[in-house]
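One record is set out below.
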Amino acid sequence: MKTDILVIGGGIAGLSFAIKIAQKRSDLRIDVLTKTVENESNTRYAQGGVAAVWDFDKDSFQKHVEDTLDAGDGLCKQSIVEIVVNEGPQRVQEIIDWGTRFDKHGEDYDLGREGGHTENRILHYKDLTGWEIQRALVAESKRYANIHIHEHYFAVDIITQHHLGWNITRLTPDIECYGCYALNKKTGEIETFLAKTTMMATGGTGQVYKNTTNPVIATGDGIAMVYRAKGRVSDMEFVQFHPTALYNPSGDNPNFLVSEAVRGFGGILKTPDGKEFMEKYDPRKSLAPRDIVARAIDSEMKIWGSECMYLDCRHLDKEAFYAHFPTIYDKCKSIGIDPMTDMIPVVPACHYQCGGILVDEIGKSSIKNLYACGECSCTGLHGANRLASNSLLEALVFGHRIANDTLEHIDSQEIKKGIPNWNAAGTTDPQEMVLITQSTKELKDLMSYYVGIVRSNVRLKRALDRLFILYRETEDLYNTTTISPQLCELRNLVTIAYLITRSAATRRESRGLHFTTDYPNEQPFLQNTIL
């Protein structure tokens, strides 16, 4: 397959970028790969909303910038924060024009507030904002004949000079991307996609942990592919744990998210005996930034020896609660919890990867002809901790900027010739899937216990030792058996686990989402970890 533009990932980052290109250039072919179906992405699972300055009588760009910098704990790149905040409202208006619906009170948008925000600025659609945005983007993409969405294609590796016989290292100048090899999950064949420009938009890494709000497809594929291709990756230690995933003893994968907007609406965190506890940790109480709230809940769980804490919504108006959070209400009821009479059991769960593929202010990675956008990228916006609902905004702003840069250069680019087809010689079908499933389970356990909300040098060392064993076993399996989605995901998760753990071991301080008992007080480190 030869194309002008290859997009790996079909969420808000990938589709908004593709639509922008298609609007201006109907002559360019755009191919979008998604490893499941077109409606499935990390975007779809975003409950809370998208943050943007909308009410200029009460809010301002400066306030949004300051809130983002405060949450990022000294590691945000201020120029990027200002770009995203200032350009954000225009990008949000565009998806409204494409058919995205946000809740209103009369003619005005119903602006919510979440932890870390000093003003109400969250546009939302009930508690299904991501689902609504995904719906609108898929519908808009179908209006353009030059956008081709390929379902059930799993990108295995990006193609660089390595596949032409070069010895590529991290010091090699001018590494170039020519496209990717992708597994057609329906036929089992590896197909070659060659492109002038490639955009990585593969979402997050949540499945590296046992408890996560991310969908099962969030296995860090894009970040792992770029790292294997010797591209630069940054700030992987900053893994955001959402404080309030629904605790369900019977187990859910992914964990059901109880949106931060519930606390913005008036929900209060309490201990099992019904007493508030957040005032011990932060004067903002239940509306403190996520890293603080997650650690507070984790601390209280250890103090109580409990598997969860509780979110009390019993004092809220039932009709208003259901109007804002119908999905949350129905989910609670389905497991025997009535939010109007029972406190909701909650537990922190892996939610968002603040680090990723290192990119500049227009989304360029360290590899030529390769952009990255959305959760798989590291722009400098989030720093050490993402401010709630900034992620969808970031994807829209950078999708737009990448589209503009692509259009400036696409006519001078060419599709690389002489790329070899995938070589599967010497491999056989795997005899035992248990080797893959058990390694995946082991990986999730060691990351959850050793590289979770609270870390230490001893835990990180133990994690790295075990990860090296898992890496060798997985690579042996990869080199001797035929490719399967499960094996590729395990391979990517092992890489992601290494990047998180290695970055965490490098940062000898506690900052933002990275908290270590060996360095509990912040030190003047204030620099990015780049691998």
The first helix runs from residue 12 to 24. The mean pLDDT is 93.
